[in-house]
Design a protein that fits this description.
The chain is mainly alpha-helical and 171 residues long. It contains 6 helices and no strands. The protein has 2 domains: 30 residues; 139 residues, Four Helix Bundle (Hemerythrin (Met), subunit A) (Up-down Bundle). The model has no long low-confidence stretch (mean pLDDT 92). InterPro entries: MAPEG (IPR050997), MAPEG-like_dom_sf (IPR023352), Membr-assoc_MAPEG (IPR001129).
Length: 171
Amino acid sequence: MFAISEQAYSVSSMSCRLLEIMSSLAQVLPERYGYVVLAVAGGSLVNIYHIVQVAKARKQYSVKAPLTYSEDEPAFNRIMRAHLNYLENYPFFACTMLLGGLQYPRASTSAGVMWLVGRIWYAKAYAEDSSKRGSGFMISSLAQLLMLGNTIGFGLRHAGVIAACRARFSR
């Protein structure tokens, strides 16, 4: 009985500590960082869009789970491939948004929204005809490069590289 109440106390104190950390974190995050978080949440909504599209395609083309490929239905394969491609790219999106957004919240949010629009465009075009997915791919790729640039800029600043370069070349 003592172990249970000690464990309950431990969980309760961990929860309180987590709340303290979260509240401290909110005080040090840059202004407008909430938009970065909302853009990342938008990425989850786009994933739900993909899930719904795949579920509809499974029903329409009679492709039972856990199959991820159909020998007979290329339309199903295009929808599934668009979803899988999204899942392959989402970690890059989320990491570069959250990290780059610490230094450049507005630029990261803009690039993130651009990425989301590109991914939806890509999915819709790919579902129709795989040769039409290029525009969505280009939009999301450009956005990815912008987000990566923001993340690299954040890393260089916090590694002290930018300050060192300024000191070296300002002589």
